[in-house]
Amino acid sequence: IIEQATAAGDDNTVQNLTERLEVFRRLSEKGQLADELPPVMRAVMGFFEAPSDAAAEQFFASQRDLLQTSEAQRAMDVLVEQAPPDIPANVRQLLLTRQALLRRLREEHSAAANAQTS
After folding, report:
1. Nearest alpha carbon to residue 20 among 116, 90, 118, 68
2. Which of 89, 92, 97, 2 is nearest to 47 (CA)?
3. pTM: predicted TM-score of the whole model, two decimal places
4. Cα separation of 65 and 49, whole Å?
5. Please, are residues 12 and 51 in contact by the beta-carbon 8 Å criterion?
6. CA quadruple 34, 54, 94, 14: dihedral positive or negative?
7. What is the secondary structure of 42-64 as a DSSP string?
8. Which among 104, 106, 13, 9 has a CA at the least distance from the CA of 52?
9. How far is C-alpha 100 from the geometric centre of its chain's CA atoms?
């Protein structure tokens, strides 16, 4: 995809995807490869890697059983806490934004579920 964006002259997409790839590489170096990660962690990584907040919300809906868990929120919190200090500011901001988005979506889903049982 990065090569296609480069060929198309889409510098913004190239930069964005390159930075995300670098973060993923760093995370992979510290831990397990994506295929070896537990399902919840794979879901959290997919949520983080979504190309937009709207896409992340759609991903949440498709992976709700995994992402609704407190384990998923803890995993996202750990990603934020353990992010290398030298990652680009916009990637750090994306981590923080997705952390807050996951928390909000989990809260909204819990509130909706509680309203249905009342």
Report:
1. 90
2. 97
3. 0.68
4. 18
5. no
6. positive
7. HHHHHHHH-SSHHHHHHHHHHTH
8. 13
9. 11
**Residue 92 in tokens:** 């750090």
Query: Hey, what amino acid is at 82?
Result: Q
Residue-by-residue DSSP string for 9-42: T-HHHHHHHHHHHHHHHHHHHHS--GGGS-HHHH
Tell me how far apart the alpha carbons of residues 47 and 64 are, in angstroms, rounded to a whole number. 11
Structure tokens at 12: 């913004």
Using CA atoms, how far apart are residues 21 and 15, in angstroms rounded to an integer? 10
Span 57-112, pLDDT tens digits: 999 999 999 999 999 999 999 888 888 888 888 889 999 999 999 999 999 988 77
Q: Which two tokens stand for residue 111?
A: 């509130």
Neighbours of 53 (CB within 10 A): 12
Supply 81's token pair: 């806490």
* Residues ≥6 apart with Cβ < 8 Å to 82: 30
Q: Which amino acid is at 38?
A: P
What is the number of other CB atoms lying within 10 angstroms of the CB of residue 24? Answer: 14
